[in-house]
Amino acid sequence: MKNVETKLKQSLLKRQEALIKFKAKKEAFFLAKEQITRDIEEARSIWKQTLEQLPEQPFRQ
What we know:
Blueprint: H1 2-53
């Protein structure tokens, strides 16, 4: 009976560690995604400002 308890505890600990690792990776993913989104928005803003500074083009849409 003792062997079953040990295996069950090990299984639960292993599952808990996997869940902790998963949550950490998920959080890191969302932080990276947020940073990439901010970088894209900043690049879009810079691009828009750059286009506004260019002289008017005859066929510009």
